[in-house]
Amino acid sequence: MTQPFELTPELQQAVSGFFQRIPFNQLLGIELELLSPERVTMTLPMKDELIGNFMHGILHGGVIASLLDVTGGAMALIGAFERHQHLPAGERMARLSKLGTIDLRIDYLRPGRGRGFTASAVLLRSGNKVAVVRSELHNDEGILVAVGTGTYLCG
């Protein structure tokens, strides 16, 4: 019988470090807010370099997709940690190093207006090799801007 999954401080640091070492995440300004077995939350402050519609100051759709993908990937990684907790640490890390997006669907519901944005993700399913994650993006007023469903290779 497997132990209930606990996202220990060491695992939190491993997931956090994994995403903080990606230069693109740093370029965008993505900040990690919450890592838990149930949910991942990341934030993104608005800045001029991220505007897609300069006439209205709206967040670029590619940035929206990227933020939802990064948040979903972190959730998939946590799900994979749980699925592979029985493996030795080295083997588990070797499998998780293969994490990648297989498919990503974004529904843009409203223009990306705001001073900042929060993306959250929940795990829909985590299998031996593939995870499916649902993500949402809200602006700083709590308005839902976009939703995404991502499929990730994670083992």
TrEMBL record:
InterPro entries assigned to the protein according to its UniProt record, in alphabetical order: HotDog_dom_sf, PAAI_dom, Thioestr_dom
UniProt entry keywords in alphabetical sequence: Hydrolase
Coiled coil: none
Record carries keyword Hydrolase: yes
Domain Thioesterase: 56-145
Tagged with keyword Cell division: no
A Pfam family that the UniProt record links to this protein: 4HBT
Catalysed reactions, semicolon-separated: a long-chain fatty acyl-CoA + H2O = a long-chain fatty acid + CoA + H(+); a medium-chain fatty acyl-CoA + H2O = a medium-chain fatty acid + CoA + H(+); a fatty acyl-CoA + H2O = a fatty acid + CoA + H(+)
EC number in record: 3.1.2.20
Family classification: Belongs to the YigI thioesterase family.
NCBIfam families, alphabetized: PRK11688.1, unchar_dom_1
PANTHER family linked to this entry: 1,4-DIHYDROXY-2-NAPHTHOYL-COA THIOESTERASE 1 (PTHR43240), MEDIUM_LONG-CHAIN ACYL-COA THIOESTERASE YIGI (PTHR43240:SF20)
Protein name: Medium/long-chain acyl-CoA thioesterase YigI
Species of origin: Pseudomonas benzenivorans
